[in-house]
Amino acid sequence: MTNQQYDVIFVGAGVMGCAIATNLLRRDSQLKIALIDKDLTYRYSSTVLSDGNCRVQFNVKENIQMSLYGMEVLKTFADDMAVDGDKPDVAFRQQGNLFLTDEAGREEVEAGLALQQSLGGNVAWLTPEEAKEVYPLLNIEDGLFVGGTFGRDDGTMSPQAVLEAYKKKAVALGAELIEAEVTAVRHQSNQVTGIQLKNGDVLNAGVVVNSAGAWGTAMAKTCGVDIPMQPVMRQVYVVETAVQPSKILPLLLLPSGTYIIHEGHGKFMTAHSFPDDPVTTTDFSWQHYKFEERIWPELAEFMPAFDSLRVVDGWAGLYAVNTFDGNAILGEWPDLRGFYLVNGFSGHGFQQCHAVGRYLAERILGLPPTLDLSVFSPRRILENAPVFENKQKII
């Protein structure tokens, strides 16, 4: 394999790498592309361990536009991503997202709602009484929230199915899938020249994409690029309750940032990102006490029926947290030609893979972007021009 020549090499074959590769090959079928991942079982992949939600409820215009485009893609995804007649089923379930707010966050939420609606997002303001109509378990007697925004088209899907669809399509279009560990991005005279593998092999390319997710910070450092991103471990809990809603309830986000996804019958999935969550790429441990001490009391306060429940499952995954402003870092690093970043999504990356796939493909090929996402350019880090989503805690 030593000294093989490629046009584009991806370090990381998660949903971002595979989506960009698919978009590249759809535009130029002659490209020679390598998708490299150290573990193609995806056991610790942030894609597979994500909750698979898609929402338009953002406060930055481009984030909203990415979600709206993603929902358009999902309408015909099965047909568009078919390989040899085999159509993927990503089980997109548009049960809606209900985001509650307290008085402190109301002004910001209302500003975000106006922007979402102006861009065509199907989002509405609900009073506490209206919120209880769509989420009957809510306690509206104690004034815990002043209202909420309900994204009627938002929903959840299978992240693994989306990843597998993009991976299979990329390979069908000609991408080479390689299971190997990349130890360094090679460069010379401010230009990327390829990558080096752990076994000593060198693969050459004029474009290298850092799609390594939570491992992206370490990868960037191998070519002298410092990106403000930390791999943070976040835990998810699956609980079983005695309640039996007659239909699937919307995803519920509490003002604190705790969220709950109804899986059916009495089963719910819940999580919260805490400031003391471990920074790690190796710790995937899972502790009951964080749920019992920090999450359960709040759930029971907002939904009294959750006073009695049992934890039946759970897992830990990694967020690639952008410590600069919490938003994606997309595009070519200004001081290293050919080194493209697709990093730092801070927990909302999965749903943006469709728009990011198209945008990065256009950037790499020098095409005008269909949706301009230059607001997330890495240049903003060097120029200290952060793009903040909002002050409130959000998934």
Question: Can you put this structure into words, describing what you see?
Answer:
This protein is of the alpha/beta class and 395 residues long. It folds into two domains: 4-85 and 158-228 and 324-382, FAD/NAD(P)-binding domain, CATH 3.50.50; 97-154 and 231-320, D-Amino Acid Oxidase, subunit A, domain 2 (D-Amino Acid Oxidase, Chain A, domain 2, 2-Layer Sandwich), CATH 3.30.9.10. Helix content is 27%, strand content 27%. It is built from ten helices and 18 strands. The strands form three sheets. Strands 1, 2, 8, 9, 10, 11, 17 and 18 form an eight-stranded mixed β-sheet that branches. β13 and β14 form a beta hairpin. α1 (15-27) runs parallel beside α6 and α2 packs across α9. The longest helix has 16 residues, at 103-118. The two termini are 41 Å apart. The mean pLDDT is 95.
List the helices and strands and how they pair.
Layout: E1 4-11, H1 15-27, E2 33-37, E3 53-54, H2 61-75, H3 77-80, E4 97-101, H4 103-118, E5 123-126, H5 128-134, E6 147-151, E7 155-156, H6 159-172, E8 176-179, E9 182-188, E10 191-197, E11 202-210, H7 216-221, E12 229-241, E13 251-253, E14 259-264, E15 267-271, H8 288-302, E16 309-322, E17 329-332, E18 339-343, H9 353-365, H10 379-382
Parallel strand pairs: 1-2, 1-11, 2-8, 4-13, 11-18
Antiparallel strand pairs: 3-7, 4-6, 5-6, 9-10, 10-11, 12-15, 12-16, 13-14, 14-15, 17-18
Helix pairs in contact: 1-6, 1-9, 2-9
